[in-house]
Amino acid sequence: MFDRNKPYNDLPSLPPKEEFLDTDVLMKWGLASRNLAELNRNVLRIPNPTMLVNTIALREAKTSTAIENIFTTDDELYKAVSSSLKEENASASAKEVLNYREALWGGYNSLLTEGKLSKEVIINIFQKIKTTAQGFRPPQSLTVIRRGNSDLRPGEVIYTPPRGEGIIESKIDNLIDFFSNENGIDPLLKMAIAHYQFEAIHPFTDGNGRTGRILNLLYLVEQQLLSHPILYLSRYILENKDDYYILLSGVTQRKSWKPWLLFMMEAVEQTSKHTNQLIDSIIEQQEETLKFAKTKFKWFTSEFNDLLFSQPYIKQKKMSEVLGITSRTSLVKYAEQLTNLGIVSTIYEGKQVYYANNDLMRILE
């Protein structure tokens, strides 16, 4: 019997022994699959998807960290990412978001190299998120999950994850086997099942939620359901945060898989639709900006337009690199021309100057 105050070392191995497929789940799975396939087709029609995906990945990073009650403003985040992932002046919260994005792309590149998810990939994702050399929780770890301060009984233990010599390692091995073995379960449903399992194992001292949400995306890429890790899944989870945690607990306490799977399929369906709309809006605006600006300025190139839509804020140094000019006078002149037409806004912070893409900001907000 499950006891929230005792380590859940009896967490069942995957695949689940309970029957979880019925008409409701299959219908929801069908809708999720169709919308996910449409999203993947949309990504593939982008001439340079990495540049556009980078912008959406930043939103995913910001929202995923917000689920863990780590908040940052768009302004400080965009300033930090326009400079460097190691921006010294960035707030602690902004750095957490940027670490998440770095972990997402690091995991994606590892997947392209190795071809499949592994224990090493999972640990590397966690280490990038938390900027640490730590690995799995040690056997003697007393990690527990408690209620938040906003709950009726703040501080009360609601879950104690597995612990003990070799237990976390063996459960992660089972999770990796579940990912890689042919067991008759569709990859989209397998992603949802594995996400619960990873959260229940809770293999790290911190950063488990963010690591698990990155694994969702990477597994879909591994299974060729997505070409890039672009599904903005954290948005739906944040908007339905209470349901997310209640349904996770339902699987733990009652083996209630169906409500959890329905929730996750709904998340994939709605997120795919939203991300598709986001991509359509960005592509349409990118094309419109290029067409409009080229009629105004001879110096405005498609490469520079790509830069404008690669991230919300850019700096003069990036402008100089793409345009191939070093004259500060010319850079200021070009920036003023763009500002006068409303294409960018100029933002000053001390000696730093940022140029914000007004239309991209409008779409993202």
Task: Report on the architecture of this protein.
Strand 4 and strand 5 form a beta hairpin. The protein has a three-stranded antiparallel β-sheet with strand order 3-5-4, sandwiched between helices. It is built from 15 helices and five strands. The chain has 365 residues and is mainly alpha-helical. The chain starts with 22 loop residues before the first helix and ends with a helix.
Which key features would you list for this structure?
Fic-like fold; Arc Repressor Mutant, subunit A; 15 helices; three-stranded antiparallel sheet; 2 domains; 365 residues; two-stranded antiparallel ribbon; mainly alpha; 5 strands
Report the helical percentage.
55-70%
Q: Which residues form runs of ≥5 with pLDDT under 50?
A: none
How many strand segments? 5
Under CATH, the topology of the largest domain is which?
A: Fic-like fold
- Major beta sheet, strand line-up: 3-5-4
- State the major sheet: 3 strands, antiparallel
Which band does the percent of strand residues land in? 5-15%
**What is the total number of structural domains?**
2
CATH architecture term of the largest domain? Orthogonal Bundle
Molecular shape: elongated
Structural class: mainly alpha
Give the rounded overall mean pLDDT.
89
Q: How would you name the CATH homologous superfamily of the largest domain?
A: Fido-like domain
SS field, number of helical segments: 15
- Radius of gyration equals 22 Å
Between the first and last Cα atoms, what is the distance in angstroms?
46 Å
Provide the CATH top-level class of the largest domain: Mainly Alpha
The SSE order reads HHHHHEEHHHHHHHEHHEEH
